[in-house]
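Repro case for the chain-ordering regression, as requested:
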Amino acid sequence: MNLLLIICAVCSGAAVVGLSALWAVETLKARRQGGFRSVLQRRYLHIVMSALCSGRGAVPRFPMLRRVGSRLVLAETLAGVVSMTYGLDVGLLRQVVARYGLDRWLLRRVRFAQGYRRARYLALLAVLPVGEGIPPRMARYGRSRNRYVRFFALMTRVSAEPLAALRRLADYAGPFSDTEVAEIMTWLRRGALPVAYEPLVASPSFNLRRVGLSVVRQFGIEEAEPLLLRLLDGEGPYASGTEALFTLCALHRPLVRREVSRCVARLSPSQRRALMRYMAQCSYSPQVLSRLFDDSESAYYDTIVRSYKRCLV
Amino acid sequence: MPRILIASDDEFARELVRLALAGVDAEVRCAGCGAELERLCARVLFDMVIVLRTAPFFCGRELIGRLRPEGLRRPVVYVLSWQQCEQTVLALLECGVDQYLTFPVSLQRLRAKVVSDLAVNGL
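-- result from build under test --
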């Protein structure tokens, strides 16, 4: 019995020591790998920026590209540079992508990955200047059940073929979320496509209207006011009345109008409160509210204005 | 030679801006956004500080007061960030930030602005 106990204790002790050693080795390996990735990314970034700044147009050489994970580091570096800047020499970046076959390599990774991992590779493809063969292969991912995969497949096609961008955005199945609209706005701000807000805001497509309203909000286009007032009267699940109302607030336009009153009357209690919070953020006077809301609701606005929350909402 | 400090916790963004300013005739140093930034600014009087986040300005620590000694116009403070909310930009400018640029940023434009601001300050 005692012998059995000793054997069990020794075995469990050995197992604990073995597992601890394994954990330590894995941790050291991960740390070393992370350090290697970080050093390699810095080196690649230096090479890319030197090539871009030199203006010679020669495709640079990247060391250690055959090592595992190096192509991903290069793709992430190029994507990082492209997404954080505009006005760079896209021709040179396109040549780098083509020379090292980054688009084809990412496409293979997309094919074999699943879920969020697939979406991540697609997001990289959407930012890189890819070859002509890539957009048609995105069609199958546009039908994916995963929302992120669907959206980044769309962004890959849109980035690769800017002339067909508006048609593709309009054809997208389902409404864009706020973060998706923000992603599209970032793409537009990189100067990928000259955009006129009017056809977007007046478009029959809900998604294009959302993008158009976002353009109006971000660039403070006050001339869009008549178009926004027209949108306020829209009803139904895919009407943009509420968003047009928030856009009017963002532009600090007068809200005491018949169209605005009609639109506010249609809002649910939670939407009305959200509107009041946004109005407080946009510094509207409480007097404006007396024309739009009843006294009990106006009291809520007063509490926001008088409290520290005004700075936080 | 003018001294520029780039502060960010994101190593990639920090390195990108540093490389973009490589052609500028200045000594460029990098730091993290937190205590390291304040420590360096307390030790060295920089001519320009480029902060790649807005959060350090809204943590209630009066960062500009710590970066810029009283009565001096130096360092010129630039903020580069993804935020474009009007209130955020106005709040930053009101608390003493000299220039606010949103990402994505044109590196040529950034370089030109830095060079012009350093020239205006006679550096």
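Ordering looks correct now. Chain A has 16 helices and no strands.
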